[in-house]
């Protein structure tokens, strides 16, 4: 599938410039000029153990293929995951990695990022891990704007525990734990992230390597929290849930491409905005040209991005794909380092610590 | 100069009590500071309600601060006050039961109104009905005299003037016990630097209180308590929470690691977060996390990156952190978890002390997940225990739980300042090179290849070329660290993790026994904050002629190597605890010694006198020979 997102595409495009203050990899040591790593360098010696046909394979291949273009030293890249099928991800990448506990990866990665400016830190999580047990950590990492890249594999089901409904499963979904249909209303991960005032929010799909890679690239460039929702197929417990988006003809009519500065459209339909800011999809022929939404991911106010995220429907009638929001804000970790740096008066010596221990009121007892 | 009689005392216990809005904690703090600067030894016990402002004038709203100071070494805040300062009827009613007959009571008569009396069930004012005849009552119209003293402050409202009544009380007590007030004056000057009128009012109230003591006929005598004989050195007064914070900073400095605190506010641990948040100049990073789990998670993430990860909490928070501590056990990374215990279960008694998290610290996780557990014995020992916790965590690459409690956290005592350069050398070395070769002879890194002595695994931090590796909570193969579900490997790794923690006993000091006559048949063993009350009780039992030995555990997991030997050396072993016998259970199970558990869970420290009775009774039961006087 070919989609033009208006973003730099494919390996060989300009590498992320670590000297650019706005880059997500500023401060991370880069490879010497003229040297480069390959996909093989990022492939660990561990046997990959996902089910045959799992969407995770495609995402892994895309990530392994994408990482070399960052031009970073491999030892300065860290993947942290929680629990679930997707969270096995770090084992298969030959970087530093931690397969942690259920839902906690954003918290753990926050501590790592806060103390290590020289690392490119990625979180790999799933819909259950990120939105259910770890929902609190996710929204707080996003609101703090920690320089983390969070890849949320959304397959709308619990896989590792064998097929219960997840916080993104649709109402009425019949699963092992909802034999009469799920009663829960699902989260829209993009709406949730925008509600938490995430500075970078995007959606892409496991099977669209080019789109996925372009989104990863933009996420890596973004300094701050990046939430990337990746539609991912679980062939065992929720097979084919995104199939209509993978069919070329269907996709053309359903996927609303989010491209900076361009109209939001799918095939013959466009997105229009009414006076209240509510967005709807309309045939282009019937749309008032002045009301057609032109995408601006850098808009300061997240309302338009949020309205776009509400165009989702359970039947995948229209699905916005691409970067919903991408704005520059101070990051938590940079600000923390700044506070420390400005409080510091030089290297801490034993004498400094002695003075700290003594405080203001001391008295001396002589022999 | 006062022309009144000055009488010398060797020790005094004062309790300041008032409504939680009356500023009693500040008054107590300032009096303590004056006393410390004078060179008395001292110990303090703040006691306040969990509610920030309980209904005014009611019993639940009473806040108090007790201070014991002396010309000799002080072990506890004192069982019973010699002087009660009662700022309202509720403070009198709530504290009278603790007051021995003959003690002095200074009451603020202005607050003894019909309405305030009724709030606490006094039909008639106890000041008028003769019910206080057993005590020396000093009725002082503290509020109105303070307001009168501030008559010239025309810009202040009456309410603002009334607020200075605690400074009046402090001034009066400072006169009564011959304390210098310069320290308080400079404290007020810095506190109210940008509000000159409030500053002047407070200073005026302080002086008015002092002068009132000197001029009124109600106080015929003032008192002096000479400085205590203390070891040569420079001292400051310190609370347990501040000492613990400073210990963490000093230890991180000695270890050469940046300190990262991930913490969620919880009573009574929050002061550690506050203290460390103010120390950015020393490179300290603090993060107020979204919850307890994130606090420990962020700390563990920081440790993975080569920082000293620390989290602070109290009992309910420790429960929430359990899973992450288990992950740290599996990752074998340094992590310091400070549990400032409070009354439980559940929310329990947030502002009261208890030591009922011992078993939670040892066993409150799934699977076999041993961690090191240490406990400070006094407020200033919180500093040393923090250094020890960091030493264990970094040397053995393990979580260490520090069990302090509300009594140590908020209590204070003089602390002889250590020299940073003389603290234990705990410098940390990260792995920098591959530590093995593969089948083809190429260098490789095995993240779980252990140091043969400590059984610690290498600490290889991200950013180190050639050592890229993955860690996680799934069982790992020995040496390589790869995922392994092999039954024999799991059995092996489970035993290895336990052996690593057990091996810490090799590097901790043996359990010391204080047995001056060397022939005691009764041993009293404690842990944590009961040190002071137990030592005071043992001292009293000895003064009554009993031969008794005392030992105090600072390491709860593992125990010092000689613990069993020590326990078996006595006919009777008494273990007092502020729980229902958790240490007793551990000692019985591990050493098969018949421990006698003596317990109290009232949210308050033991009374030394009560404990002395228990000890004396035990001594009497084993002493067939007549009791002899023993030298101390």
UniProtKB/TrEMBL annotation, chain A:
Gene3D superfamilies membership: 3.40.50.970
Keyword Transcription: no
InterPro entries to which the protein is assigned, alphabetical: 2-oxoacid:Fd_oxidoreductase, THDP-binding, TPP_enzyme_TPP-bd
This protein's UniProt keywords: Oxidoreductase
Any one GO molecular-function label of the UniProt entry: magnesium ion binding
GO annotation terms (biological process): cellular respiration
Domain named Thiamine pyrophosphate enzyme TPP-binding: residues: 83-230
Xref: Pfam families: TPP_enzyme_C
Region ranges (Disordered): 1-32
CDD domains assigned: TPP_OGFOR
Keyword Transmembrane helix applies: no
Name of the protein: 2-oxoglutarate ferredoxin oxidoreductase subunit beta
The organism of origin for this protein: Humibacillus xanthopallidus
Lineage: Bacteria, Bacillati, Actinomycetota, Actinomycetes, Micrococcales
Automatic annotation (TrEMBL), chain B:
Domain Pyruvate flavodoxin/ferredoxin oxidoreductase pyrimidine binding, residue spans: 258-478
GO BP annotation list: response to oxidative stress
GO molecular function: magnesium ion binding; oxidoreductase activity, acting on the aldehyde or oxo group of donors
Keyword hit for Metal-binding: no
Residues annotated as domain Pyruvate:ferredoxin oxidoreductase core: 520-584
Pyruvate/ketoisovalerate oxidoreductase catalytic domain segment(s): 21-211
The keyword Transit peptide belongs to this UniProt entry's keyword annotation: no
Protein's name in the database: 2-oxoglutarate ferredoxin oxidoreductase subunit alpha
Organism: Humibacillus xanthopallidus
């Amino acid at each position: 599938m070919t989609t033009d997102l208006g973003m730099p595409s494919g390996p060989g495009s300009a590498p992320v410039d670590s000297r650019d203050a706005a880059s997500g990899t500023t401060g991370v040591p880069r490879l010497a000029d003229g040297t480069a790593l390959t996909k093989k360098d990022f492939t660990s010696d561990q046997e990959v153990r996902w089910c045959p046909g799992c969407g995770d394979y495609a995402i892994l291949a895309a990530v392994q293929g994408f990482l070399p273009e960052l031009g970073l030293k491999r030892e300065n890249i860290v993947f942290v995951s929680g629990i679930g099928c997707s969270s096995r991800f770090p084992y298969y990448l030959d970087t530093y990695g931690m397969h942690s506990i259920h839902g906690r990866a954003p918290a753990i990665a926050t501590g790592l990022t806060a103390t290590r400016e020289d690392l490119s830190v990625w979180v790999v999580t799933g819909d259950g891990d990120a939105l259910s047990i770890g929902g609190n950590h996710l929204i707080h990492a996003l609101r703090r704007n920690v320089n983390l890249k969070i890849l949320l594999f959304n397959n709308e089901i619990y896989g590792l525990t064998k097929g219960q409904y997840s916080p993104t499963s649709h109402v009425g979904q019949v699963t092992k734990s909802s034999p009469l249909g799920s009663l829960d209303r699902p989260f829209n991960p993009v709406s949730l992230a925008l509600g938490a005032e995430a500075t970078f929010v995007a959606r892409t799909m496991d099977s669209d390597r080019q789109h996925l890679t372009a989104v990863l690239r933009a996420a890596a460039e973004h300094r701050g929290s990046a939430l990337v929702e990746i539609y991912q197929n679980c062939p065992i417990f929720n097979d084919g849930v995104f199939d209509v988006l993978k069919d070329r003809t269907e996709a053309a009519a359903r996927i609303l491409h989010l491209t900076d500065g361009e109209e939001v459209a799918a095939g013959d339909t466009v997105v229009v905005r009414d006076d209240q800011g509510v967005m709807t999809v309309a045939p282009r022929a019937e749309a008032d040209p002045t009301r057609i939404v032109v995408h601006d991911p850098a808009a300061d106010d997240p309302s338009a991005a949020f309205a776009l995220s509400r165009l989702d429907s359970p039947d995948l009638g229209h699905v916005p794909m691409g970067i919903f929001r991408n704005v520059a804000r101070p990051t938590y970790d940079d600000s923390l380092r700044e506070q420390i740096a400005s409080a510091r008066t030089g290297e801490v010596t034993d004498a400094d610590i002695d003075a700290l221990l003594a405080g203001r009121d001391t008295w001396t007892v002589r022999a | 100069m006062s022309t009144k009689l000055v009488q010398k005392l060797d020790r005094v216990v004062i309790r300041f009590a008032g409504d939680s809005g009356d500023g009693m904690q500040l008054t107590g703090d300032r009096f303590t500071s004056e006393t410390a600067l004078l060179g008395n030894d001292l110990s303090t016990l703040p006691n306040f309600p969990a509610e920030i402002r309980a209904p005014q004038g009611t019993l639940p709203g009473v806040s108090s601060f007790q201070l014991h100071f002396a010309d000799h070494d002080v072990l506890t805040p004192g069982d019973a006050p010699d002087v009660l300062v009662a700022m309202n009827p509720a403070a009198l009613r709530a504290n009278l039961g603790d007051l021995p007959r003959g003690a002095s009571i200074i009451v603020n008569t202005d607050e003894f109104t019909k309405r305030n009396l009724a709030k606490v069930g006094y039909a008639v004012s106890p000041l008028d009905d003769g019910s206080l005849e057993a005590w020396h009552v000093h009725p002082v119209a503290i509020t109105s005299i303070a307001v009168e003293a501030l008559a010239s402050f025309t810009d202040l409202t009456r309410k603002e003037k009334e607020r200075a009544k605690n400074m009046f009380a402090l001034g009066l007590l400072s006169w009564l016990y011959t304390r210098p007030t310069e320290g308080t004056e400079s404290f007020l000057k810095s506190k109210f630097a940008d509000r000159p009128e409030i500053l002047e009012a407070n200073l005026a109230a302080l002086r008015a209180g002092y002068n009132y003591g000197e001029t009124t006929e109600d106080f015929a005598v003032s008192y002096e308590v000479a400085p205590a004989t203390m070891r040569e050195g420079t001292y400051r007064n310190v609370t347990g929470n501040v000492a613990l914070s400073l210990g963490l900073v000093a230890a991180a400095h000695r270890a050469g690691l940046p300190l990262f605190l991930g913490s969620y506010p919880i009573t009574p641990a929050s002061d550690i977060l506050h203290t460390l948040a103010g120390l950015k100049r020393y490179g300290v990073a603090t993060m107020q996390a979204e919850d307890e789990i994130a606090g420990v998670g962020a700390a563990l993430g920081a440790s993975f990156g080569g920082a000293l990860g620390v989290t602070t909490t109290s009992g309910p928070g420790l429960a929430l952190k359990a899973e992450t501590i288990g992950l740290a056990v599996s990752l074998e990374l340094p992590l310091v978890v400070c549990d400032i215990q409070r009354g439980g279960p559940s929310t329990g008694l947030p502002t009261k002390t208890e030591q009922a998290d011992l078993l939670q610290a040892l066993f409150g996780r799934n699977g076999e997940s041993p961690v090191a557990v240490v406990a400070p014995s006094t407020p200033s020992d919180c500093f040393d225990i923090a250094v020890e916790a960091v030493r264990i965590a970094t040397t053995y690459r393990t979580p260490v739980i520090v069990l302090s409690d509300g009594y140590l956290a908020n209590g204070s005592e003089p602390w002889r300042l250590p020299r940073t350069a003389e603290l234990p050398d705990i410098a940390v070395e990260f792995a920098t090179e591959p530590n093995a070769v593969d089948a083809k002879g190429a260098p490789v890194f095995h993240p779980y290849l252990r140091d043969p002595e400590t059984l610690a695994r290498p600490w290889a931090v991200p950013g180190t070329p050639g050592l890229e590796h993955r860690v996680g909570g799934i069982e790992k193969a020995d040496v390589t660290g790869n995922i392994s579900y092999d039954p024999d490997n799991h059995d092996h790794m489970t035993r290895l993790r336990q052996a690593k923690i057990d091996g810490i006993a090799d590097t901790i000091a043996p359990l010391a026994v204080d047995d001056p006559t060397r022939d005691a048949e009764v041993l009293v063993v404690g842990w944590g904050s009961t040190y002071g009350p137990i030592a005071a009780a043992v001292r009293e039992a000895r003064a009554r002629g009993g031969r008794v030995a005392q030992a105090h555990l600072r390491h709860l997991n593992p125990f010092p190597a000689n613990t069993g030997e020590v326990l078996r050396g006595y006919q009777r072993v008494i273990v007092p605890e502020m729980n229902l016998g958790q240490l007793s259970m551990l000692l019985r199970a591990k050493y098969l010694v018949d421990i006698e558990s003596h317990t109290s869970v009232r949210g308050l420290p033991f009374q030394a006198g009560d404990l002395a009775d228990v000890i004396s009774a035990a001594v009497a039961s084993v002493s067939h020979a007549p009791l002899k006087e023993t030298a101390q």
